[in-house]
Design a protein that fits this description.
Blueprint lengths: L5 E5 L6 E5 L2 E9 L3 H14 L5 E8 L7 E5 L9 H11 L4 E8 L6 H18 L3 E5 L1 E9 L3 H10 L3 E7 L2 E9 L3 H9 L5 E4 L3
Helix pairs in contact: 2-3
InterPro entries: Impact, Impact_N, Impact_N_sf, Ribosomal_Su5_D2-typ_SF
Protein name: YigZ family protein
Organism: Gelidibacter salicanalis
Amino acid sequence: MTEKDTYITITKASEEVLFKDKNSKFFGYAFPVTSENAVKVHLEDLKKQHHSARHWCYAYQFGKDENQYQFRANDDGEPNNSAGMPIYGQIQSFDVTNVLIVVVRYFGGVKLGVGGLIAAYKTAAQMALENSKIVTRTINQDIKLKFEYKDMNKVMRVIKEKNLKIKSQTLELDCTIIISVRLKKTKTVLDTFKSIFGVQVDLLNN
């Protein structure tokens, strides 16, 4: 089985979308996020922007590896599982991660019932994601190479041949280069550098 080394996410905040049902307004937003702190900042901004709204319901998911996803769904006062989970369902449906979706509701005076709420929050979340630029990104591993300056040509030849991305480099008598390698190519690249006499190779925690 090949290890999955890609994930799907959004590149920037979506434009605001609006879904209406029986005078209730549901404003949908999608944001790229990688931490709970970023989630908090976006929620605070939307609460200032929509200070007279009734509910700010949301769901998020972080992580590049589906076995280690962190996620949360919040109904923010709506009936249990009528808002946060329908929003999270769209994150799963679009197979995106490192994303926050917030749906802000203004109550229009007519109760929608749990079924109506589920449909409305799901639709607003779907519209927010449809209005986002969705991209596939690779999961990469950083590798540190340490070697003497005299071995520079051998190391750089491999970097060029394998089209590897250099993240940082210190080129003195003792040299250090940090490269970023797509996950499924890591073993081949490691083996290649380990076969060069005088090059110390270390995997870094990303």
